[in-house]
Amino acid sequence: MTQFPIYTLDSAPEQSKPALNGLAQAFGMVPNIAGAIAGSPRLINGLVAVFQQAHSGIFTESEVQTLLLTNAVTNAATWPVAFHSFLALKEGLSEVDVQAIRERRLPQDDKLAALSRLARTLIEKRGRVSDEDVAAFTAAGFEASRVLDVILVVAASTMTNYTASVTQPPLEELFQSHAWQD
Predict the structure, then answer these.
(1) Same domain for 26 and 83?
(2) What digits encode the pLDDT tens for the residues 76-134?
(3) How many other C-beta atoms lie within 10 A of the C-beta of residue 84?
(4) For the chain, first and last CA: distance in Å?
(5) 133 burial class (0-12, 13-18, 19+ CB within 10 angstroms)?
(6) Are residues 67 and 151 in the same domain?
(7) Which one-letter DSSP state was computed for residue 40?
(8) 54 contact partners, CB below 8 Å, separation of at least 6
(9) What is the pLDDT of residues 30-43, one digit of tens each?
(10) How far is residue 177 from each of residues 86, 138, 173, measured CA to CA in Å?
(11) Which residue range(s) make up the domain with 50?
């Protein structure tokens, strides 16, 4: 398999360093996935911009993590599943709901279940959701326009999920207890 370097703040291409610095400030470290993505300044800068929009308050952080974890599991992206399991718990998702998502089941919370179901459906149907899929989402209390915001989060996570599958970054010790295999 092709080896992809995991860049650091010191070794990354110059155009990737500002994005990595921002991620280091946000997480207290440069996650290995970001170090892998930094090999393409265009991808790391695009990723940061899209994730800033995804975390802009459209959804609560626990809702965002529900989406990101669901997306990682649906895409069978092992590094992101561990990372987002860690963050989901940190953001207040219950262990039961995190485990349910990791097992491709829906969370117990109705709103989180609606988010998870829609994200999984978008990925599995490659964006071709039905009126019934949208109706199930709005029945949980979301406005129909929030479907577009779910698409934004799915798009953002697709970048990290695909990159993780291609580059296979090592899982940091901090996330080892959340390791996952499909």
Answers:
(1) no
(2) 999 999 999 999 999 999 999 999 999 999 999 999 999 999 999 999 999 899 999 99
(3) 32
(4) 19
(5) middle
(6) yes
(7) S
(8) 64, 152, 153, 156
(9) 999 999 999 999 99
(10) 9, 35, 8
(11) 9-54
CA distance 11 to 48: 19
In angstroms, the CA 128 to CA 38 distance is 32
Nearest 10 degrees: CA dihedral of 7, 18, 172, 78?
-90
Separation CA 7–CA 81 (nearest Å)? 21
Amino acid letter, residue 141:
G
Query: Within 10 Å of residue 178's Cβ, how many Cβ atoms?
Result: 19
Contact at 8 Å (CB) between 114 and 140?
yes
- Establish if 175 belongs to a structural domain: no
Give residue for tokens 């892998």. Answer: 36
Locus of tokens 């290995």: 32
Q: How far is CA 91 from CA 1, 30, 62, 84, 86, in A?
A: 35, 19, 5, 10, 9
